[in-house]
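User: Round two. Same drill as before: sequence, then structure, for each protein.

Assistant: Same drill it is. First protein:
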Amino acid sequence: MTRLPRWADIVLTPLLSLVLAFAISALVILAIGENPWTALRTMVTGALGSSYGWGFTLYYATNFIFTALAVAVASHAGLFNIGAEGQATLGGLGVALVALALPWPHWGVALPAAMIGAALFGAAWAFIPAILQAKRGSHIVITTIMFNFIAAALLNYVLVNLMRPAGSMDPASARFPDSTRLPKLTDLAAGVGVEWGKNTPANITFLIAVAACVVVWLLIWRTRLGYEIRSFGRSERAARYAGISPVRITVVAMMISGALAGLMAVNNVMGEAERLLLNSVEGAGFIGIAVALMGRNHPFGILLAALLFGFLYQGGGELALWTSIPRELITVIQALVILFTGSLDNMVRMPLERLWGRR
């Protein structure tokens, strides 16, 4: 059977899967007695119809880009990293420790330091499952899942017993200094004379996330290390024969993956909350798995898929706020998107490949 070209695999197949998912979602909305067109219009208007909606959509998308890139890098090495949630959690701890450690003179100085802290803590949390897989044969799926729970428990202990300000009942760190406050996209737009929304959490981290997509693309497809990662992911036996060390590739790929997941904390901990909260990740690590699947583990596809899931999150909130459609229905729509772009991928791909072959 003729293989689809890369552009069709990354864009066309997920797009058709998405159309099918939304068609089934429309039937579900009809079945509960609501108008699918009204629901779609509410979601589009709430997520994309104003600068306020765009601000929240881009904020959510930023989180999903980082966690999906983390999943994608590990996937290219044949590893299924389900621990992005825990790695992002520990990345937040790294951000908080850096932000509170010194009297930073300006956010431009604090931001690179916070990024290093987030990446190091995320990479360190991914290192342990990686070395257990490489040296002891412990399955990476099991260990990364368990480390999510350990990370949550560790953060709970640190916030309650070590970082909570005196007299506070809230399990959260102290608020970061004003000098570490990251500029919002609103501020950047105002700097070029454009009035673009107010009171939205979207900040400069979105631009960093886009840059991360470019860096990951260069790493995976334009460097020797990326070639070794892809070779190992395709065939461990062939990689061994070529002199590629399975231990080194497993550890390096997982640490890069953990570092990317940890970088997500710059957006929600430093850019939005401006302090470390107990549940700051809010499931973005698991959503990243779906985003990576839908984006075919390619940075460009991940960028598009993250924007879609950002739209679903923000649009779903507006849908629950302004209509009688329950908030849980958005979870159903997300599940349908994941189902069609993941489990039922061949249902769309195989007919496309046959049509492409005839063409």
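Second protein:
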Amino acid sequence: MQTWLITGCSTGLGRALAEAVLARGDNAVVTARDAAKVQELEKAYPDTARALALDVTDPAQVTAAVQQAEAHFGRVDVLVNNAGYGYRAAVEEGDDADVRRLFDTNFFGAVAMIKAVLPGMRARRAGAIVNVSSIGARITPAGSGYYAAAKAALEGMSGSLRKELQPLGISVIAVEPGAFRTDFAGRSLTQSAEPIDDYADTAGKRRKENDTVHGTQPGDPAKAAQAIITAVASPEPPALLLLGEDALNAFSSVLDAERAELEQWRDLTVSTGFDG
């Protein structure tokens, strides 16, 4: 039996993962900024679930959540950094305070959680860290520059962290979901207050009032949860796990385009060395 600590469990992928982990008999510390939204999970699984209030941008709450998890279940075997939200704006439109808040949650909050669980994992020479990113980090859509940047930062950190922790028996997986039928594009999505007309045909098309995708996304959160559980349990967990056929297709297209551009500019690239 493992103990999972999952952030952002009130809805969506985090909720589906919490339910799947508990249904298979593992322990789960299920968290949300409002603990009342996850209390029913503890009521349904009184012996294996612990519902806690957690705002990952609050250092005191981060420390308290990990301490309570370790005190209640003895350890944290798997940390899932799922807490986060979307923000849509042309780069020029982005409000500085909004952008800092986005990074505080989607990147620095995850870092704080990782630092809090690692002493225990290092002592046991075992554990797994799952950082939920987005295919947006790869495809960088117009209107999602700041969100893509926050998730790209999370992935870059995950890659280095994996190399640091692999010799210690701790795995690190970055997860890139495509479009899943969650609240991400609905209640959880924020955007710049004042759109600029010149971006109407690029970033503007992704504003909430123009987005018709919500509620029709192809991905099933319950299946995504099972995929994450399978990856964590693998003898050799992947560094990067894509979720959804749309994510796979988009990732492949980006790789093909990058390879083509790399070759197109090869001569100029290699021309920069010293002669002789």
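DSSP finds nine helices and nine strands in the chain.

User: Perfect.
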